[in-house]
UniProtKB/TrEMBL annotation:
Residues 1-10 have a biased composition (Basic and acidic residues). Residues 32-89 form the HTH lysR-type domain. It comes from Streptomyces litmocidini. This is LysR family transcriptional regulator. Gene3D superfamilies: Periplasmic binding protein-like II, Winged helix-like DNA-binding domain superfamily/Winged helix DNA-binding domain. InterPro entries: LysR_HTH_N, LysR_subst-bd, WH-like_DNA-bd_sf, WH_DNA-bd_sf. Belongs to the LysR transcriptional regulatory family. SUPFAM superfamilies: Periplasmic binding protein-like II, Winged helix' DNA-binding domain.
C-alpha cells in the first residue's frame, strides 16, 4: 500500500479528518467530566448523595441530576438509591475504581502545572538597551524586589537590535528598547519618553558658541556615537536623514558610558540621552549644545514576542514601569 493510501480517512471518518482526531472527539462525549467523577468518588466515600453533594459544593438535586446524566452517558446504572442512602452497583464500583485513577492522574497533572508556574514565577529574564539598563531599570528592579522578594532577576544589556534578538530566541521574558518603533516580531507599549542632547567638553569650541547648531552642521560634524543598532543611533540617523545624513563617526562605541567618557575627555562632541548626563551637566564636565530645527525625542518601550502580554513577574515589572 502506498503512503498516500495509508493516509485515507476510514469509512467512519469525516473526509480530510484523521481517525485519531475523530477518536478524541468521540472520547470526549463518552467519558464523564472530572467534576462528575469526583462526585461519584464522594458518594462512594459517604454512602450518601446528600453528603457527597455537600462535599463538592452543589445541591442534592444537582448532584442527583449529574449522576443520572453520567449513567445515561455510560449506559449503566451506577447507584442503587434507597431511603437508607445510595449504594454503588457492581458496575458503579468498577467505574469508581477507574474514576479514582483518572482523578489521581488529574491531581498529579495539576501539581505539575503548579510547579511549572512556580518555576516560571521564581525567575525573570530581562533584556534592555543600554540607557534603560543603566539609568531606569535599577529603580524598577528595586521596586519589583519589594513585591517579589523570591524572584531571581537576570539582566542582559545591549543595543535595541540585540534585545529583539534575545526575545525572539526565547532568551528573555521581557525587553526594553529605545528605537523609533517596535522591532519586527514583537509587541510593545510605551513606558516613558526621552530626549537626546548634543554635548561637548567645556574646552570644545561648540561650548562657547552663542547661537544654536543647525541640523546640517550637526550632520556634517564627526561625532562620538553609539554603534548601529542602538536606539540612540536609530533616532539620530532618522532625524538627520533629510539634512545629508550623519558624517562618518569620530568614534563608534558600544555603550553609553563609553560615549560619555570620550566626550568628557574632550575627544569630540557626542549625542547622549538626557537621562545619562544629569551629573555631568550639573558639574560642568559636559555642556549641552542647543540644536534648532530637528527633533531629538524618542519613546522608551517595553517589548515582548508578538502575542499575549507577559504574565507573572514580567507583568508586575511592566506595571512598575508605568507607575
Amino acid at each position: 500500500m502506498s503512503s498516500e493510501q495509508g493516509k485515507r480517512p476510514t469509512p467512519d471518518s469525516p473526509r480530510g479528518v484523521s481517525p485519531g482526531v475523530v477518536s478524541h472527539r468521540l472520547l470526549s462525549h463518552r467519558v464523564p467530566d472530572l467534576g462528575a467523577l469526583e462526585l461519584l468518588l464522594a458518594v462512594a466515600r459517604h454512602g450518601s448523595l446528600g453528603a457527597a453533594a455537600r462535599e463538592v459544593g452543589i445541591t442534592q438535586p444537582a448532584a442527583s441530576s449529574r449522576i443520572r446524566s453520567m449513567e445515561r452517558q455510560l449506559g449503566v446504572a451506577l447507584l442503587d438509591r434507597s431511603p437508607r442512602g445510595s449504594r454503588l452497583t457492581d458496575a458503579g464500583a468498577l467505574v469508581t475504581d477507574w474514576a479514582r485513577r483518572i482523578v489521581e492522574a488529574a491531581e498529579a497533572f495539576d501539581a505539575g502545572a503548579q510547579a511549572l508556574r512556580g518555576r516560571r514565577d521564581s525567575r525573570l529574564r530581562v533584556a534592555a538597551s543600554m540607557t534603560i539598563a543603566e539609568y531606569l531599570l535599577p529603580g524598577w528592579l528595586i521596586a519589583l524586589r519589594a513585591e517579589r522578594p523570591d524572584t531571581a532577576v537576570s539582566l542582559q544589556a545591549g543595543n535595541s537590535a540585540a534585545v529583539a534578538e534575545r526575545l525572539l530566541a526565547g532568551e528573555a521574558d521581557v525587553g526594553f528598547v529605545e528605537g523609533l518603533a517596535v522591532p519586527d516580531g514583537l509587541d510593545g507599549v510605551v513606558v516613558s519618553h526621552d530626549r537626546l542632547a548634543v554635548v561637548a567638553a567645556p574646552s570644545h569650541p561648540w561650548a562657547r558658541r552663542r547661537r544654536p547648531l543647525d541640523p546640517a552642521e550637526l550632520a556634517a560634524t564627526p561625532l562620538v556615537l553609539r554603534e548601529r543598532g542602538s536606539g540612540t543611533r536609530q533616532v539620530l540617523d532618522a532625524a538627520l536623514a533629510a539634512h545629508g545624513g550623519l558624517a562618518q563617526p569620530l568614534l563608534e562605541l558600544a555603550s553609553t558610558t563609553a560615549v560619555k567618557a570620550a566626550a568628557v575627555s574632550g575627544a569630540g562632541p557626542a549625542v547622549l540621552s538626557e537621562l545619562a548626563i544629569t551629573e555631568e551637566l550639573a558639574s560642568r564636565r559636559l555642556v549641552a549644545i542647543p540644536v534648532e530645527g530637528v527633533l531629538l525625542r524618542r519613546d522608551l518601550r517595553a517589548v515582548w514576542p508578538t502575542g499575549p502580554r507577559p504574565t507573572g513577574p514580567a507583568r508586575d515589572l511592566l506595571s512598575l514601569t508605568r507607575g
